[in-house]
Each structure stands twice: as C-alpha cells, then as structure tokens.
Design a protein that fits this description.
By secondary structure, this protein is mainly α. It has helices at residues 4-12, 19-39, 42-74, 77-98, 105-136, 139-155, 166-173, 177-191. Helix 2 (19-39) packs parallel to helix 6 (139-155) and helix 3 packs antiparallel against helix 4 (77-98).
Length: 192
Amino acid sequence: MGDAAEDRAKAAELPEGDVIAVLLEQHAQIKDLFAEVKRANGPDKKEKFDALRALLAVHETAEELVLRPVSAELAGQDVVDARNREEADANAVLADLEGMDVESPEFDIRLEAFRKAVDEHAEAEEKDEFPEILAGCDEERRRDLGRKIKAAEAIAPTHLHPESDPGSTKQKLVGPFASMVDRVRDAISKAV
C-alpha cells in the first residue's frame, strides 16, 4: 500500500462517489492524521489523536455495516472474518492508547505499532476486498454503497461543528472509542 497521495490518485481514477474511491480517500485521511499526531505536541496532539479516533470510528463501522456484507458475497466469508478480526484487534490497541498520556514516549511507540497494523489492514482490504467489489458490482451499486458511507460520515456525531460552543462540541470527539463506534452505528442505521 502506498502513501496518502497514492491512495488519492487511485480514488481519482474511479467514478465520483464510488464506494472504493470513498474508502481510499478515507485511507488517505487516516494516513494524514497519523502523520499529524506524530508531529504534534501538547493539546494539539490530543486533538489530532481524537480526530484520528473519530475518523477510524466512522471508517471501520461503515466498512463493517455497508461494505462487509457485499464483501462476504463477492470475496467470501473468510476474507470478511479476517478483516473483522483485524479491526477487533485494532480496537483493543486503540482502547489502550486512549488510556495513555499522548505526551509519553510509550504512547508514541504504541501509536507507531498501531499505525503499522492499520496500514496492513488497509492493504489487505485493498488487495482482497476492493478488487472483488470493483469486479462484482456495477457502477450504480458502488455509487449507492458510497452514498451510504458518505451519509454515515456526514451525520455521525464525530466532527466539531464550527458554530457550536467549543466546550460542548469537544464532547463529540472525546470519550471511549467504543462509545464513538456506537454513535456511528446509530448514524449509519439512520442513513441506510
């Protein structure tokens, strides 16, 4: 798997709104956020980490609820089970990271290991699932799946609203990852 620019270039080759283009763009955003967390310090580092957690909650939950049922049909249940196991493992690591001081050296070490695991997971999706979706779904179905993921992304309560009180809006980005995933699940069920 390449860097964020390569993911964006691959996404740009696909029809606008295609589910694979949407997911590749999210992969690029995740890579960008990992780099931003690594470079940041102090409160900015915590804010960037919270943004990463929020995007991961949206991305992984949307994949589970929107993409994986189609992947099971086209790529097989073994592939889906492997991706779901990787996501469960990643969620456990993320829960550990949530309890750490973002300024600690141990946080940086664990974050780098987590980044590598997320990269490997995305690479497996791009190798094992995405080609099957591209080959097995017509453009209309891929756009429909993309719309569902974009709708979930738009209504999931994980982004700060620029006109809201900063004290209250920050609550949308903080809290345990599991709670964020629950909010995203609720948003997706309303979107699909």
